[in-house]
Amino acid sequence: xxxxxxxxxxxxxxxxxxxxxxxxxxxxxxxxxxxxxxxxxxxxxxxxxxxxxxxxxxxxxxxxxxxxxxxxxxxxxxxxxxxxxxxxxxxxxxxxxxxxxxxxxxxxxxxxxxxxxxxxxxxxxxxxxxxxxxxxxxxxxxxxxxxxxxxxxxxxxxxxxxxxxxxxxxxxxxxxxxxxxxxxxxxxxxxxxxxxxxxxxxxxxxxxxxxxxxxxxxxxxxxxxxxxxxxxxxxxxxxxxxxxxxxxxxxxxxxxxxxxxxxxxxxxxxxxxxxxxxxxxxx
Length: 283
Ligand code: SAM
Description:
Strand content: 25-35%
Radius of gyration: 18 Å
Number of helices: 11
Oligomer: single chain
Strand order of the largest sheet: 9-8-7-10-11-13-12
Distance between the termini: 46 Å
Largest sheet: 7 strands, mixed
Bound molecules: S-adenosylmethionine
Shape: globular
Helix content: 25-40%
């Protein structure tokens, strides 16, 4: 294979020159490939959809981690759903204030292959004593879960195959039940220019459930179609309203060095274009 064509959209897409195919396997659940591309570094795809690249993964992982954790201010227990490439785990582990991190990934093969072929993503995070890796379906885990988390991060693929359930009404209800009183849920929610229905469906599911809900965004080059939205659903309204000054102080206090996230980006990311506001019923 000399090039990899993404098949996420039938009529529009991107391709990558494959300089070196590192791994290709049909796991029990999905088709997994990891290859090298001179511009984007190592690239991982599942079932025809690019999941992550070494070159731009920091946009995505920093925004899904530092936004909720710093907005919360006192997050101790974190749950990651999905995240098998390890990038989200690495970013959460950088918060020394966090006591425990549970990651629930459905496919052991993704974890194993990414540890081997994408080691910079996890960067040793699996060895962190605060980490508890659970191989299970995120929905099943939450249905049986009696623990409470301060932040839940859904680092899921698009809503097909095993990930479809992570966009269901029942999933958001289970996340709401497993959050502490000031808890925050965030989730990958597609690029609205191409996947507006995904945003509409999530908005419909979270609006009656959480005291505060919205979306924020970042343009991640790998996820084609412009800015990607991240769902935000919180048990109180204060966390989203956290001031720029407080976010700046918390960020400095964390001593985390980022490449994308800063407090100004954090605040600005919640300003949405009009067509997205209209779609979610907040024009
Ligand atoms: N960043 C990517 C994106 O934007 O599309 C997604 C990251 S990828 C690591 C998502 C992970 O979710 C995959 O490893 C996949 O195996 C896992 N996953 C899919 N369905 C799941 C489910 N029901 N429960 C837990 N993990 C799931």
